[in-house]
Design a protein that fits this description.
The complex is a heterodimer of chains A (295) and B (280). Chain A is mainly alpha-helical and 295 residues long. Chain A has 14 helices and no strands. Classes of the chains: A mainly alpha (295), B mainly alpha (280).
Chain lengths: 295, 280
């Protein structure tokens, strides 16, 4: 409506604080990461440019490709399981049975409480000798002796995934539930009149109409999971012997553990490239789905 | 009629919900049980879920085990409150600008804010550390507040913009026709109408700020007196043993107020969560 010059000036003035803030605290560090990745910056002040040396070093070291592959596998399983459990949760919480308001509130705690506190609780549950998981499984006779879940590579890998799923599930569930409830009721009634069963109605009405919500949530969850730091750091710090070291953990260790800022920045740039690709896919998907809705 | 279930369907639904809620709540229930157990019982086998001779003594002992505990809880609330305030000051005008004015680059800027959302603080830790050091903010509240707010601004702008788009434009126009300045219109016409949306954004921001206090606190602050609760809880990890029962008790006390808020405001939260995400 208002496209006069004074209106533009006014709009920009309103935007200025947000823009300045984001440019200083996010955009500038992003540029700084790229610059640092070409230097030998470390704890001491000052640095020299070293060209592609950091990149040659990290890709030459061999285990970096392994870390990338591990991150992709870790993210893939975590996101897929979140989507499946989230969908099941949404279907269950959407059923017209008494008590649903209470059940919906009860799904929220993992999303609400400080992530670190939830992870401390999981840390105890995974405790080999006295934790709940070992304890219950032994009480039911499913395992013979105690299992220290975080002490072995493959169990630690899955333990961190389970905790990541646990933190992500409430948001996915609530989001899917909301999407499910926005589907017009008469579609179901028409199908019901035609004698379609519950599963058939879910597969032929709910699922297709929820594709935009599923795509959006998968991509947002993909980005969040890929960037997941707290869970792995608190549970295993990337161990045992690197079995839970994802790209974020690896970058943190290089930069903040060994204080190799330049090399850490190079690893961060690789992460940024991945995130940018996810962003592009996300924007395209949102645009395409948006057009689909308009038709 | 369509929603009428057979008895076996009802059983299946409730069993499913029970299983789902078990997964979601097990750590909390177990954590609460641990907080009631004497320490010796925690480290004895066989494992028992229900405490024997359970008591609330951990809830009293924890204050003397970790003398700074009260301060850590306060710090968490203080940091989240200031972050929320900062986010609102920056986000309200920005959301209004995006909701009401068409100007060159508006779409691009909005996209930029969305993209910023995708980069986590963990990736930008090195330059952020250097920036905090250069600004002399290391080891202060601001070391956690300043970066904490930055990563909550973009999603809040999107959420509030969506809300403001629903307020009829005619109201702004009517005020202008009556001779009100743009700023006056924003303050006296739009702000009161947008208040419910602003409240949702404030709650979501507060929860986000409270939930995410880990990595910035871990990296940019080493002073005990500024530590938020999640980092402060490490004080229960002794050299010999971990005071798990007191750790869990402290966790519950620290998160109780947030939980109460959720119970009362869950409607608004669900509305906010979906409004921001679905209607882009």
């Amino acid at each position: 409506m208002t496209s006069t010059r004074s209106a533009t000036v006014f709009a920009l003035a309103l935007l200025a604080p947000a823009l300045i803030y984001i440019l200083t605290i996010v955009a500038y560090p992003l540029v700084d990461t790229v610059i640092l990745s070409f230097t030998n910056a470390a704890l001491r002040p000052g640095y020299d440019f070293v060209g592609w040396a950091n990149y040659q070093r990290i890709f030459g070291a061999g285990n970096f490709t392994e870390i990338i592959i591990r991150t992709i596998i870790w993210t893939f399983f975590s996101v897929s399981i979140k989507m499946i459990i989230g969908m099941c949760g949404a279907v269950l919480l959407n059923a017209a049975v008494p008590g649903q308001t209470l059940f919906r509130i009860l799904t929220m705690p993992p999303w609400i409480v400080p992530i670190a506190i939830g992870i401390f609780m999981w840390g105890w549950m995974y405790n080999g000798q006295f934790g709940m998981i070992s304890g219950l499984l032994q009480n039911f006779g499913l395992i013979n002796g105690p299992v220290a879940w975080l002490a072995y590579g493959h169990t630690a890998f899955w333990a961190t995934i389970v905790t990541d799923v646990w933190i992500g599930v409430p948001m996915v569930t609530i989001y899917f539930l909301a999407a499910m409830q926005s589907i017009p009721k008469d579609l179901y009634e028409a199908a019901w009149t035609d004698g379609a069963g519950r599963f058939y109605r879910w597969r032929r009405i709910t699922l297709p109409l929820m594709v935009p919500a599923i795509v959006t949530m998968s991509l947002l969850s993909l980005i969040a999971t890929f960037n997941s730091f707290d869970i792995i750091w608190i549970l295993t710090q990337g161990g045992p012997s690197g079995s839970t070291t994802t790209m974020i953990i690896d970058t943190y260790k290089t930069a903040m553990g060994s204080r190799k800022y330049g090399e850490g920045a190079a690893r961060a740039v690789v992460i940024c490239i991945f995130v940018s690709i996810f962003c592009l896919v996300y924007f395209r998907a949102v645009r395409r789905l948006g057009q689909g809705e308009a038709k | 009629m369509i929603d009428r279930y057979q008895w076996y369907e009802v059983v299946a639904i409730y069993s499913g919900i029970a299983l789902f809620l078990f997964f979601v709540l097990a750590p909390f229930v177990e954590g609460f049980m641990v907080s009631l157990k004497p320490l010796a019982q925690l480290f004895s086998t066989p494992y028992s879920f229900i405490p024997k001779n359970g008591s609330f003594s951990a809830y009293f002992d924890m204050w003397s085990s970790v003398p700074m505990l009260g301060l850590h809880i306060f710090n968490s609330f203080f940091i989240s409150s200031v972050v929320t305030l900062m986010v609102l000051v920056v986000v309200v005008p920005a959301a209004y600008a995006f909701a009401r004015f068409r100007f060159a680059g508006a779409g691009m800027l909005l996209g930029m804010f969305l993209a910023v959302n995708m980069f986590s603080g963990a990736v930008l830790l090195i330059p952020l550390f250097r920036l905090m050091r250069a600004m002399g903010l290391l080891n202060s509240y601001l070391a956690m507040i300043v970066p904490g707010a930055a990563f909550l601004i973009p999603s809040s702008i999107w959420l509030l913009r969506t809300y403001m788009l629903r307020i009829p434009r005619e109201l702004d126009e009517a005020a202008w026709v009556d001779g009100a300045s743009r700023l006056y219109t924003l303050r006296r016409v739009i702000l009161p109408l947008a208040m419910p949306g602003i409240v949702v954004v404030a709650i979501m921001t507060f929860i986000g700020a409270y939930a995410q206090q880990f990595i910035f606190a871990l990296t940019f602050n080493s002073k005990t007196e500024f530590m938020p609760l999640p980092i402060g809880l490490y004080a229960f990890f002794g050299k010999q043993e971990v005071l798990w029962n007191e750790l869990m008790a402290a966790s519950f006390v620290g998160i109780l107020p947030v939980m109460i808020v959720i119970v009362f405001l869950q409607r608004y939260l669900v509305a906010g969560l979906t409004a921001g995400a679905i209607k882009q």
